[in-house]
């Protein structure tokens, strides 16, 4: 790792610690996780304390009404575990229902795109297998922030204000999230006593309290009141699950790991598989050649992901064929040095989210991501619970026969993905980049920065990014120079104007030195977050 080989504009240095490290998008949440580590908890305990605090202090992005995924290195088991805590469509939600109501594509807001919230069942699965502390202990800090108030941080305050119109649509959302008729300003105190009471109920009665009884009844009623079809039975039936991570060997002992579908981690692995066949290290970092190859690889990865990803419980996803050496060679051969592709899916044989990563002294590492999907999700707040509900169903397809076509009990194509890198079979990095369809692109770019160019985590996150949008359309961050922009334009890339309002994601990363055990962390300079260690 070379701390001084690259320099990008940033307010931050890498954080280096020995006994534990937490990196996430809001400093109060990072500190909540660090407090758990200092009190003797492990990385799994700290991750749940961190994400529960994020549910309070970053409510535009996450909450207990959303979904979660995780990659967890268990030191006790000596292996990487995958956790899928994404909820399915209600039993009454069918493609014919949507088409009968006149929809040609899935609506983004309101009751119809609300899928069963899976996050809390994910907390349960992780803590019951790997945790050492009780939910009552881990929820103490978020309960206090929700009850007594917390100061809103700058980026979150701006995101909150952008959702004011959505939040003003329904009385419960307006009451909870727009006190005094507006979004809270940065540095202004905000409290959510209704959510504090909900968290207190979870602390006292356990995970089932969200899925059975009064809280579940309020969730289901709020969804149906806004045009959805969710019932209490849909909530009661839900369970998260352990899954086997997908893995590709990259080079020099490094392997990248993602979760299998219904998440879009496959898109990142497809792009990484293609990119590793080029001499990226031989290209000047940040050159037109460098960006061209990564953009083209990402287009190909996305074109296959969008064509084939669905819920594997209801639709076959040809993962092995897509990741095969033969298919990778075929896709890589489509990339021409001098011209940009118009991406199309091959035929193989056979926007608001929170991310956190935590490592402890015992060797555990957690890569955890949780989301409502779009800002404040569906726009629905469940009665008097203070819970905002996700709109994850907006990613379902209404195309007949598509692997992602909506169906009862089916989980939608999911944008949120945690990332993990091992080196010589040992845990090396937990990382992720939140931000809708920017996420696989962020995994590709930050992962290449870490592995190919030896950047420390903070530098890898500081580096300017691209965001491929569709066809040949791509956005580049302003720090990418005019000569590179001009050359990419000559090759056929349709670049958005410099400074266009496009998201480039928000990442966090922690690396564990395999010899000393020292932890090196970084936090997204484009967000409010922090990496903190002990």
Taking Cα atoms only, what radius of gyration do you get, to the nearest Å? Answer: 22 Å
Largest sheet, strands/sense/barrel: 7 strands, antiparallel
- Large-scale geometry: globular
Q: How large is the share of residues in beta strands? A: 15-25%
Distance between the ends: 21 Å
- Helical proportion? 25-40%
> Biggest sheet, strands in spatial order?
1-18-17-13-12-9-8
Q: Report the oligomer.
A: single chain
Active site: 353
Family: Belongs to the gamma-glutamyltransferase family.
EC number: 2.3.2.2, 3.4.19.13
Keywords: Acyltransferase, Glutathione biosynthesis, Hydrolase, Transferase, Zymogen
Summed up:
This protein is of the alpha+beta class and 534 residues long. The chain is built from 20 helices and 19 strands.
Task: Give the helix/strand layout.
Blueprint: E1 15-17, E2 20-24, H1 27-38, H2 43-57, E3 67-74, E4 79-85, H3 95-100, H4 119-130, H5 135-138, H6 140-148, E5 150-151, H7 154-162, H8 164-167, H9 171-177, E6 189-190, H10 193-205, H11 208-211, H12 214-225, H13 232-236, E7 241-243, E8 246-251, E9 254-258, H14 265-275, H15 288-308, H16 319-322, H17 325-332, E10 352-360, E11 365-373, E12 419-423, E13 426-434, H18 439-451, H19 457-462, E14 466-470, E15 473-476, H20 482-490, E16 494-495, E17 506-512, E18 519-523, E19 530-533
Parallel strand pairs: 15-16
Antiparallel strand pairs: 1-18, 2-10, 2-19, 3-4, 3-11, 4-7, 5-6, 8-9, 9-12, 10-11, 12-13, 13-17, 14-15, 17-18
Helix pairs in contact: 1-2, 2-6, 6-10, 14-15, 14-17, 14-18
């Amino acid at each position: 790792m070379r701390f001084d080989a690259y320099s990008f504009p940033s307010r931050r240095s890498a954080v280096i610690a020995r006994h534990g490290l937490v990196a996430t998008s809001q400093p109060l949440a990072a500190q909540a996780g660090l407090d758990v580590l200092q009190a003797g908890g492990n990385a799994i305990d700290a991750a749940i304390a961190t994400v529960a605090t994020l549910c309070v202090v970053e409510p535009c992005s996450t909450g207990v009404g959303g979904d979660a995924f995780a990659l967890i290195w268990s030191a006790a088991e000596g292996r990487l575990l995958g956790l899928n805590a994404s909820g399915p469509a209600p039993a009454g939600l069918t493609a014919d229902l949507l088409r009968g109501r006149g929809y040609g594509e899935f609506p983004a807001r309101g009751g119809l795109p609300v899928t069963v919230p899976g996050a809390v069942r994910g907390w349960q699965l992780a803590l019951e297998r790997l945790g050492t502390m009780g939910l009552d202990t881990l929820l103490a800090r978020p309960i206090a922030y929700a009850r007594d108030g917390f100061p809103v941080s700058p980026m979150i305050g701006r995101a909150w204000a952008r959702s004011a119109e959505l939040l003003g649509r329904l009385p419960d959302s307006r009451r909870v999230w727009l006190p005094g008729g507006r979004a809270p300003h940065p540095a202004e105190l905000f409290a959510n006593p209704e959510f504090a009471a909900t968290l207190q109920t979870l602390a006292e009665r356990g995970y089932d309290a969200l899925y059975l009884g009064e809280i579940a009844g309020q969730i289901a009623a709020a969804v149906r009141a806004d045009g959805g079809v969710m019932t209490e039975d849909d909530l009661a039936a839900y369970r998260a699950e352990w899954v086997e991570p997908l893995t590709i060997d990259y080079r020099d002992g490094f392997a990248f790991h993602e979760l299998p579908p219904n998440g879009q981690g496959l898109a990142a692995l497809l792009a990484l598989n293609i990119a590793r066949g080029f001499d990226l290290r031989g290209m000047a970092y940040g050159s037109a050649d460098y960006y061209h190859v990564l953009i083209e690889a990402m287009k190909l990865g996305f074109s296959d992901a969008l064509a084939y990803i669905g819920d594997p419980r209801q639709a076959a996803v040809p993962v092995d064929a897509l990741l095969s050496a033969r298919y990778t060679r075929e896709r890589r051969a489509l990339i021409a040095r001098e011209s940009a592709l118009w991406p199309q899916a091959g035929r193989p044989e056979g926007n608001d989210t929170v991310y956190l990563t935590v490592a402890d002294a015992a060797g555990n590492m957690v890569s955890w991501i949780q989301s409502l999907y779009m800002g404040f999700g569906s726009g629905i707040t469940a009665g008097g619970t203070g819970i905002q509900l996700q709109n994850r169903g907006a990613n379902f397809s209404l195309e007949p026969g598509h692997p992602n076509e909506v169906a009862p009990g089916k989980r939608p194509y999911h944008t949120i993905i945690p990332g993990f890198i091992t080196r010589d079979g040992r845990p090396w990095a937990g990382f992720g980049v939140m931000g809708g369809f920017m996420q696989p692109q962020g995994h590709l770019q930050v992962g290449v920065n870490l592995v190919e160019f030896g950047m420390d985590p903070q530098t890898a996150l500081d580096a300017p990014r691209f965001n491929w949008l569709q066809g040949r359309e791509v956005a580049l961050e302003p720090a990418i120079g005019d000569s590179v922009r001009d050359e990419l334009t000559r090759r056929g890339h349709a670049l958005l104007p410099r400074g266009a309002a496009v998201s480039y994601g928000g990442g966090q990363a922690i690396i564990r030195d395999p010899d000393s055990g020292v932890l090196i962390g970084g936090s997204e300079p484009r967000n409010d977050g922090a990496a903190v260690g002990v």
